[in-house]
Amino acid sequence: MTEPDDSAEEGESTLPHTSAARTAKLASLPLGIAGRAVSGWGRRLGGRSSDDVNAELSARAAEQLFDVLGTLKGGAMKFGQVLSVFEAAIPDAYAAPYREALTKLQTAAPPMSTRQARRVLTEQLGTSWRRRFAEFGEEPMAAASIGQVHRAVWHDGREVAVKIQYPGADEALRSDLRQLMRFSRLIQAIVPGTEVKPLLNELADRMDEELDYRIEAEHQRAFATAFADDPEFVVPRVVASAPKVIVTEWVTGTPLSAIIADGEQARRNEAGRLLTEFLYSAPARASRMHSDPHPGNFMITEDNRLCVIDFGACLRLPDGIPYGLGEITRLALEARPAELMAALREHRFVRPDADVAADDVLAYLAPFSQPLAGTTFRFTRRWMQKQATRVGDARGSDFQTARSLNLPAEYLMIHRAAAGNTGILCQLEAEFPIRAIAERWIPGFLPPEA
């Protein structure tokens, strides 16, 4: 293998990681929206229809959203990736431009320079890192929020994926999340139908784990062992790891985003079933839950298995899924408000000082359990939009009921994973026997006597 000359690199790109530079870039989002709103008001006065002006403003906001979140990488892009899962909740009148822009954030970001990549590899794997590879592709195959992936051949002949963390990613991630939190209310207006601040809080809480690839490697090894030789799932084995580099087996397949874009209905249904089976079976099989469900982390292989390729955000569940989750879901389905309220209080989902009627809580939760009411369910964007509108209407009773509810810390990542999974199912418009998955893998969902 020919060793490239590290000193011959030109045009080295930089990741803007200083607080001032990144703040200015992120501040352009709300400022841009405000400026376009003023110009749009002027065009309406000039005689253009509101629909035409609103469509143009949405398209430009989406374009700016992708440009800013994508080019900054770090926490900005990570936030965009999480946000992309919930595009199914965006009202149809706004959805088209956001769908395209947010989907790009799942797999695309400007790459670091070759010199930067080599420097990180030297720091993490040693000065003789090239000898560990029979071949190494200098051009990245994919770029994500805090790292990019290169295709290579390990010294023993195995094809591998080499994920390299961007220099300064840790500093950029912390800076981004601080600044995005400041602008959370204004960003809320960019993507209707989502709750921005809770997403940012959760990302901040998990930041240190996602920055250490050794933790990701530990998670991936546990999943790979649990799902080894599984007929329905593929988890690439970890070959080597360091704090900012992880090497895993290479797997080829069709990205889930491609199936969302133009997959046949039967393939959509099967992808949705596999995704849900993986999410809810993993705690029992691997004592962990995969908690970063966006389409860029999944693909379908040629033999129709679901391949999972990113384990940066995982929740350790040594005792499996908490019993309370299944119990509360079952009681909501069975329309038993008094027992539901008792279970919610027992598991700390209702604030101790909350004065809320059991019937109101049932009315709030029952629609979320609807997919499990029958043998099968068809997830649709319209269904998700209806739920987002229902709970997001500040004038409605469900909005007021939600203010009395609490999300215990131990359920935070489970909620993110379940909500993200549902978002993808609605993007897929998938229909499959979801109740059987719940009965098999969610403790408490079946009555105690069953």
UniProtKB/TrEMBL annotation:
One of its GO terms (molecular function) is kinase activity. Residues 104-319 form the ABC1 atypical kinase-like domain. This is AarF/ABC1/UbiB kinase family protein. Residues 1-12 have a biased composition (Acidic residues). InterPro entries: ABC1_dom (IPR004147), ADCK3_dom (IPR034646), Atypical_kinase_ADCK (IPR051409), Kinase-like_dom_sf (IPR011009). It comes from the Bacteria. It comes from Haloechinothrix aidingensis. It holds the Pfam family ABC1.
